[in-house]
Amino acid sequence: MELTLLGTGAPDGLPRPSCPCAACATARGPWARAATALLIDDALLLDLTPGAVFAAARAGHSLGAVRQVLLTHPHDGPAVELPPVLPPAGRVPDGQVLTLISGHRVRAVPMDAPGTGYEVSSPDGERLLYLPPGAAPAGLDGRAERPYDLVVGDVVGRPDAVARLRAVRAVGPATEVIAVHLDHDAPPGVALDRLLAAAGARAVPDGTTLVVGAYPVVPDVPRRVLVTGGARSGKSVEAERRLETFPEVVYVATGGRREGDPEWAARVGLHRERRPGAWRTEETCEVAGLLGADGPPLLVDCLSLWLTDAMDRVDAWEDERWREGGREALRARVAELVAAVRGTRRQVVLVTNEVGAGVVPATPAGRRFRDELGRLNAAVAAECEEVLLVVAGQAVVLRG
Rounded distance, CA 308 to CA 373, Å? Predict the structure, then answer.
């Protein structure tokens, strides 16, 4: 089965008409995208968009052989004129199956938002799933018979759609996931590639033709990632986005609870509201044990609070205790954590703070914490396949 993406953008395209934002201003050349439309084996067109005939011609295809046009979502704005070479456009009711004269079978998949998804099976048995913008499959109960060969959907806007499909094994290790409906909320250029790679997905330019089931390389998702940055830099958001497409994640909160501190409680509440409801939270600093156990991906937030707890345990804040064994006790605990990061079989994203670039702390204890956190960050970074520095909400790749 051959799939040609006539467009890969949001319904309004990218750049949006008359939008002055920075993302639209830079969406030129290969980053410009027409509204998403899929041409399958020159016989089936999913979504009718302006300029579809010319987009097909630029990709080396003709719409003259199309036998069915199906729409996936309500189309706002002026009506799209139906080219005379195409049959009338329609939609298949949820759950029903349409068989084309070409031998393709199309099943309408219900969504949790306005629109219809389509599962397309070729005469040879390859299967793809196409999801409308802003939607995820609804009512996924039980394990899928087998994974799809290809899933095309709104990975940036609805990462939970991929998570739901992974949960029922409809997306497997060899499933190719293509991001479409890309809008100006998606990061541009290589930042988009990095975000999608963490989800096991990728984006392609308009006009790309894919052979379903023949994708030779599965995206390599880094197993260990360290995300560092200053206060309110966006590092926690960056870390969370890297795991949004996974059905189960254990969020390891090392900060714990602070009785009588409403400001801290508000910070914790904001983090919880941002996380997907399916994630499980563990409030603990026993991170090495979690790294050594089997289970779903871990998000550890953060190492600086873990270090605070470790220094509390060995009384490393006091100069005399530090000299009389505190240093060695702390280094042993750090070594245990670093060894656990090195040996873990779980996927893990760790968050830490970048310190030492500003004012030198006024106390020996403050300077000690700064120095030990720098050493901890360096040691953990050495064990991670990817290291990111987040500055002003922008992630800079330091490694990987």
Answer: 9
- Cα–Cα distance for residue pair 107/119, rounded to 1 Å: 5
pLDDT of 303: 96
Amino acid in the structure at residue 362:
A
Q: Which residues contact 339 (CB under 8 A, 6 or more apart)?
A: 288
What's the distance, Cα to Cα, between the start and end of the chain in Å? 34
Burial group, residue 26, by CB count within 10 angstroms (0-12, 13-18, 19+): middle
pLDDT tens readout for residues 58-72: 999 999 999 999 999
Which residue among the candidates 75, 181, 184, 271 is catalytic per the annotation?
271
Is residue 264 classed as helix, strand or coil in its secondary structure?
Answer: helix
- Asked if residues 327 and 316 have their Cβ atoms less than 8 Å apart, the reply is yes
Confidence grade of residue 263 (pLDDT, cut at 50, 70, 90): low
CB 387 within 8 A of CB 378: no
DSSP string for 179-221? E-SB-TTSPPHHHHHHHHHHTT-B---TT-EEETT--------
Contacts of residue 179, defined as CB under 8 A and 6 or more positions apart, other chains included, come to 8, 153, 154, 155, 156, 186, 192, 196, 201, 202, 203
Mean pLDDT in residue range 127-137: 96
| Encoded tokens for 387 | 């290291």
Cα–Cα nearest to 330, from 350, 351, 313, 343: 313
Structure-token match 């913008």, residue found:
133
Residues constituting the chain: 400
Can you say how many angstroms the Cα of residue 72 is from the centroid of all Cα atoms in its chain? 23
* Residue 108: φ, ψ to 5°: -80, 125
Residue 271: active-site member: yes
* The model's pTM: 0.88
